[in-house]
Amino acid sequence: MPLGETKRVGVVVYRGARGQKINAWRKRSPLNPYWLDWSHLRQSVERLAPHASGVLLDVGVSERPYGELFEPHVTRYVGLEYPPSILDKQPDLWNILDRAKRSVDVFGDGNELPFLSGSFDTVMCTEVLEHLPQPDRVLAEMSRVLRPGGKMLATVPFSQPLHELPSDYYRFTPSSLEYLVRGVGLVPETIEPRGNFASAQGAMLSQFFLRALGAKKRQSDGSVILSRWRSTLLLPFLAMIQVFFHWASKVSNDTTVCQGYSVVARKPHAASEVSAGSETAAAS
Ligand SMILES: C[S@@+](CC[C@H](N)C(=O)[O-])C[C@H]1O[C@@H](n2cnc3c(N)ncnc32)[C@H](O)[C@@H]1O
């Protein structure tokens, strides 16, 4: 598509290469109405990256948003996507975003991973488990393809509006994560909250005002089509909300509500390690 050309696809407006650069800058600033969510998720994935090594499998890679964070730590980064979600639900998006095409190495289903047991040193999934009706089944597959001693890395949401409907099944707590991870024979090393009560409220308020005052249409998948002018006028107000709650989150240590969790778990060398590992560091 030529530079400067504009095309609307669902909630995404594509404005050519220059527009993408401006969007990339805006995404990293409070002028992004989802900045509080985005920045905390990004920070928690940055903390996961040094745990990765060797050959890594990213289940539900989508547009490979964290490729550059993990690639320095691994010898190979394999991105797996599930064709029914990426191709059926978002065909137009797929057509216009070259980045999306380059991100997927293997098409397959997380419920039946097309790899031999013990093939990977690291397996990860970010914001995927809530979209699977049987997260234990996918975790069992991730555990199977992991070599003994390898690491499983995951992030999941806790406080987040429904999205990608109807495929939004769960929100997770530290206890459910520990239960699920142990249930597939992995030893949880850390389960950490991302953000806290304050940042979660700020993120929610920003989204609430954006949806209440800036949307012109609600879509069946839970997303909204924004009114260009109303949503642009709202941006400074949403930025103020987010900056206020960002600073509030610096002086709060209440994580009984947070934005989500990140998990580091290890595949034990021997089954006895799983039961002996009840000294899990479930930090919250
Ligand atoms: C919210 S997106 C997260 C994408 C990406 N990991 C990220 O952090 O931005 C959820 C992803 O899970 C993928 N997914 C859904 N069902 C799946 C399945 N059965 N196997 C593998 N991936 C699946 C979707 O295609 C989608 O890319």
Structural features, described:
The chain has 284 residues and is of the alpha/beta class. It has a domain at 22-196 and 259-274: Rossmann fold, CATH 3.40.50.150. It is 40% helix and 21% strand. The chain contains 11 helices and 11 strands. The chain has helices at residues 16-27, 35-48, 67-70, 83-88, 91-96, 98-103, 135-145, 174-183, 197-214, 228-250, 272-276, and strands spanning 7-9, 12-14, 55-59, 76-81, 106-107, 120-126, 146-157, 187-194, 215-218, 224-226, 260-266. The strands form 3 sheets. The protein has a 7-stranded mixed sheet with strand order 5-4-3-6-7-11-8, sandwiched between helices. A two-stranded antiparallel sheet has the order 1-2. Helix 3 (67-70) links the parallel strand 3 and strand 4 (76-81). Helix 9 runs antiparallel to helix 10. The longest helix has 23 residues, at 228-250. The protein is globular, with a radius of gyration of 19 Å. The relative contact order is 0.16. Residues 1-13 and 278-284 have low confidence and may be disordered. The structure holds S-adenosylmethionine. S-adenosylmethionine binds at residues 59-62, 65, 81-82, 85-86, 109-111, 126-128, 131-132, 164. S-adenosylmethionine (SAM) binds next to helix 4.
Descriptors:
284 residues; two-stranded antiparallel ribbon; binds S-adenosylmethionine; Rossmann fold; 11 helices
Draw up the topology in text.
Blueprint (H helix, E strand, L loop, with lengths): L6 E3 L2 E3 L1 H12 L7 H14 L6 E5 L7 H4 L5 E6 L1 H6 L2 H6 L1 H6 L2 E2 L12 E7 L8 H11 E12 L16 H10 L3 E8 L2 H18 E4 L5 E3 L1 H23 L9 E7 L5 H5 L8
Helix pairs in contact: 9-10
The site of S-adenosylmethionine has 18 residues, from helix 4.
